[in-house]
Amino acid sequence: MLTGKKIKEIRKHLKLTQLQFSKQLGITNNYLSDLERGKKTASESLSNLILNYNAEYNYSESDQEFPIHPLAVEDKAPKESFKVSEDLTMAAAILESTTPYSTALHLNIQSFHRAIQAEDRIVQIESHQKNMDDDFSKILSELKEIKEEISVLRSENKLLKENLEKLGGSPAGTSGKDTGGDSESKLKKAM
């Protein structure tokens, strides 16, 4: 069984407060406090739950250090490696029990569910980001084409103004006399 000192070391290693850890273990905060101070002794089942809580601990009473080794979890376990119906039956039995394991399993299921939802949301966000990046690239490309068209139009406008001035007319909006149809006919001949 675990000593109060070891229980506190585990909790500290997990970076949890007494309140957080007690809730996750399914015990009261006062009971956890009493365990850590050595006023009470953890049962074998509670000790096992604490030892297996989110990590695999190699621990013996003679250990001076407290090595902690995270569980090895493959990114994607093949579905053939387990039967869902059997796992659901076992999970239901554990959840219906009155042991601290039921609380731990319940909390783990909630955590995994939130993790899966978060991963799904990340995939959606990445997809939206890619679409936005594609749209932004299209907009930049269109903007570049528009700038080129504006540049061509400005050049053509400048040439037209120069041709009009050579013919003795003045472009619209500038000072000078309007020679009417005479300058238009000269302009048409010049083109």
Write a short abstract of this structure.
This protein is an all-alpha fold and 191 residues long. It has helices at 4-13, 18-25, 29-36, 44-52, 84-96, 100-166, 181-190; strands at residues 56-57, 68-69. The chain folds into two domains: 1-72, 434 Repressor (Amino-terminal Domain) (Orthogonal Bundle); 77-171.
SSE diagram, text form:
Blueprint: H1 4-13, H2 18-25, H3 29-36, H4 44-52, E1 56-57, E2 68-69, H5 84-96, H6 100-166, H7 181-190
Antiparallel strand pairs: 1-2
Helix pairs in contact: 2-3, 5-6
Characterization of the model:
It is a single chain. This protein is mainly alpha-helical and 191 residues long. The chain has seven helices and two strands, in the order ααααββααα. It has a two-stranded antiparallel ribbon with strand order 1-2. Helix 5 packs across helix 6. It is rod-shaped, with a radius of gyration of 39 Å.
Instruction: List low-confidence stretches.
Output: 54-79
Q: Tell me, rounded to a whole number, the average pLDDT.
A: 77
What characteristic shape results from the CA principal axes? rod-shaped
Class by helix and strand content?
mainly alpha
Share of residues in helices: 55-70%
- Number of structural units classed as domains: 2
Per DSSP, the total helix count is 7
Radius of gyration: 39 Å
Q: Strand percentage, roughly?
A: under 5%
User: Secondary-structure element order, as H and E?
Assistant: HHHHEEHHH
Main beta sheet strand tally, sense and closure: 2 strands, antiparallel
State the end-to-end CA separation.
102 Å
Counted beta strands: 2
The largest beta-sheet arranges its strands as: 1-2
